[in-house]
Each structure stands twice: as C-alpha cells, then as structure tokens.
Amino acid sequence: MDNETVSIKRDFVDLSHNISSEIRKCRERVRSLKNELSKIRGQLLDSSVSDDCVKLFLQTSSQISACYVKIQSVKGELIQCKQLLINSTSES
Questions:
Q1: What is the DSSP string of 4-69?
Q2: What is the pLDDT of residue 75?
C-alpha cells in the first residue's frame, strides 16, 4: 500500500471515530428530548393547557427533528469517506 492510501485509511479511521461520537451525542440528546416530550404530552392532556406548554412542545419536536437531520448528515459523511477509501484502494 502506498503512503497516500495509508494516509486515507488513517483519516477514515479518525473520521469514523468522530462521527461515532457525534452519533452517540445525538442519540443521547434525542433520548432526553423524548423524555421531555413525554412530560409535555401528559401536560397537554390536562384541561388547563397553556400556550407556553404548546410552544415548548413544538420547540422540543423541532429539536428532535434537527437532531435526526444531524444524525443523517454524519452518516452521509461516513458513507462518503468509505467511498473515497474504496476508490483509492481500487486505484492502487
């Protein structure tokens, strides 16, 4: 294997670790947000729901969606990196 391939593989391993860490953080955040959602849903079932409660519910739902988008983004980066690695290895 040439130096460029070795370097690409090393970069891939580093990036994979970083992406895995980001995915873990996102999963933890999603879990926390789901807990918040459960609490808010319970409040929404009460007859005395305030506008603030509804706004908080919508914000939380939005944050969960944003986290999901982040997870998809880092997965996409990992796939691109894998493809780069495959292409560089097959060219060698």
A1: HHHHHHHHHHHHHHHHHHHHHHHHHHHHHHHHHHHHHHHHHHSS---HHHHHHHHHHHHHHHHHHH
A2: 79
